[in-house]
Amino acid sequence: MPDTLTLTDNRTGKKYEIPIVNGVIKAMDLRQIKVSDEDFGLMSYDPAFMNTASCHSKITFIDGDKGILRYRGYPIEQLAEKSNYLEVAYLIIHGELPTKSQFEEWRYNITHHTMLHENTKKFMDGFHHDAHPMGMLVSTVGALSTFYPEARNIHDAEARKLQMYRLIGKMPTIAAYAYRHRMGLPYVYPDNELSYTGNFLNMLFKMAEPKYEPSPTLERALDILFILHADHEQNCSANAMRSIGSSQADPFVSTAGAAAALYGPLHGGANEQVLRMLDEIGTKDKVPEFIKRVKAGEGRLMGFGHRIYKNYDPRAKIIKETADQVFEVTGRNPQLDIALELERIALQDEYFIKRKLYPNVDFYSGIIYQAMGFPTDAFTVLFAIPRTSGWIAQWQELLLDPEQKIARPRQVYLGAPKRDFAPMERRR
Ligand code: CMC
């Protein structure tokens, strides 16, 4: 049987045969379907990209019905157990796991690009004392574009590589400075002897001690969380990164745009909202009442549901396991009991079963972050840091794809037809 789709246009009676490749038809193949020569041709209408593939990609695979997530073919469970964030970032961007020497070079280059220009500190000092850390992160990563004008050479592979080191290296430093600014504490410079996450903890929490020594358990837990957040194919922020990048903007401003998309409460901002929701619920016995309100349409159960996953988010499963290890060091976060009760009740409720709503990555992550000492409004920053490698991989794949052009959707215009301008005195 041929891999084609036969369409009959009942307006004209004409038949069309459209090729199917990799399970998709090309939207541009619909354009030939016209009622007359003047007709523009048929388009597809798909608000929110519910059923439109915007690219070919080799980075991340998700089977939402089965709850499967793989980076470059490797199951997320194996990566979370056996790898580390920097190795995963290399894998996502380069397509293969690094050899020992490739990894050492990668780690060295990222570690040696963690410092921020001193003027960045002054820039950040300008933020109000209670500025939201995501607002500071978005603005500051965009401002890096002014420090590195050569980043505009996006078609030069060497220049691209340098910006990747800078972005992955500097995101934790910006995030830590945003936190310290918020707390009124002096900024802490990076420590090159520590791991990526160990150094991040150092820049956040070092006080008067001469050398900060991160807890190995917390360092590893954060590394696992970073692995889980590294990429997630064509989500809202990856789509923003690709869309901005398609105009050939530099990677710093593109990353600022992607981070802005992540900030929203329906995307990465959900981890912050989960904790606010748990605070609002207050105690375990109030959970049934809260679920009732959600079902009545009075707000959503934050950290639940996903556009792609119609099964348990595999990342949420790993986070739940990691929580126990963290609580051994930090003590149990009492919010966990409310979250477990929410999950228990929701998973047996017809409303959630029918809509296939399960906990997503943001449901349990905030509970761990809170136990580790992060303020609630810093949670989304902890999503943005590791997602930077995913954004970069998506951006580079776009630039190297000869089929890609500037992203520019069509619209269906339903506004007023042509009419003549009326002077103000004649308007009603
Ligand atoms: N609580 C209650 N009802 C929900 C929820 C929820 N969290 N999520 C979806 N629904 C209902 C929704 O009301 C709709 O019901 P109906 O068919 O009766 O109108 C149905 O389920 C389908 O929802 P949708 O909004 O059409 O689905 P979507 O694919 O457009 O949205 C989502 C996906 C993640 C935005 C949504 O599930 C949501 O708002 N969840 C809460 C926010 C959240 O946790 N976001 C993090 C997502 S995972 C990490 C990330 O991407 O950053």
Tell me about this structure.
With 428 residues, the chain is mainly alpha-helical. The protein folds into two domains: 68-268 and 376-399, Orthogonal Bundle (Citrate Synthase, domain 1), CATH 1.10.580.10; 281-371, Cytochrome p450-Terp, domain 2 (Orthogonal Bundle). The protein has helices spanning 76-82, 85-94, 100-111, 118-125, 133-147, 157-183, 196-205, 216-228, 236-245, 251-263, 270-281, 287-295, 314-330, 335-347, 350-354, 361-371, 379-399; strands at 4-9, 14-19, 60-63, 68-71, 74-75. The strands form two sheets. Strands 3-4-5 form a three-stranded antiparallel beta sheet. A two-stranded antiparallel sheet has the order 1-2. The longest helix has 27 residues, at 157-183. The N and C termini lie far apart (63 Å). The mean pLDDT is 97. Carboxymethyl coenzyme *A (CMC) binds at residues 235, 266-268, 270, 294, 300-307, 355, 357, 360-362. Carboxymethyl coenzyme *A binds next to α16.
